[in-house]
């Protein structure tokens, strides 16, 4: 039905989501209306079995949307069959030509990898060869010519058990990392940071790891990749400002083991990284003016390189955290503290923000800063407002204890 043009979005959820995320992007909204038309919904009501099949697929299937500034993709998967519509290229849903999918992976740049019983398949954006081979726009099977051990292990598996090769897949714009039973591989943008020098950047390459380190978990964030196994973690990526936490600013040509245990990566980018360990946030990298003025980081001044993980010292338990080079926010009981061009204490727990002027509360309502309350220095007057007309930032949920150390 979907391949014949039927619109499965009976309640217009795709359009509602796009409008909610960016109410002023009329071009995207119009493209969605043109592809997912009301008339195409009627095909599901030609007989009861058609509508019943849609109801079951809605209940048991999966769907996700990948928005970009110029287009949007929407995927639906049921019983391993994957359909997608691209507002820039397709008039209706198109089935992805590959074996039954067991799991889908995607990034924010329209690159997709599917784990199937017949191996890994990829499609979408491939400008940086993050699919490990040149593609012509269709679906391609992922291969590993530079890592014979992976190819041999995959060949040794039964024809419908090729998925047993893979532990996990991580993706970020222009880069793909695949953890296999034979070892991790990487493809895409600037692979030499993780593998050492390579001759052919169009294929997957084995990752250079510390001795006797076999990762089974991974995190891919901006220019940082973290591989873990139990309490051991190894990291690589951009390190010009010491943002990896390795105690130096050397250029990376492979993974090095972190000298401290990491629970997870809260954020990375903007010349710094925030790790989480034992319910505390650890900062490494270039100290921006906002971090320095926030009072959270002792012993470091603006412009210095914080090369060793240093705890951020919060006075209260923290449930939300956001950091960029020009803004730092943390959420405590009933308030959101912001350090940007000014220091303010927003009188509610924000879940998203736009600069340091607009904040979204837990109910999804937006408020704008409209001056500072009388007889206070940092408590702003908050007025209801429309959502931002361009991209805003989500505040990451964390569970951080107050600092009681010296």
Automatic annotation (TrEMBL):
Lineage top rank: taxon: Eukaryota
Protein name: Uncharacterized protein
Species name: Carpediemonas membranifera
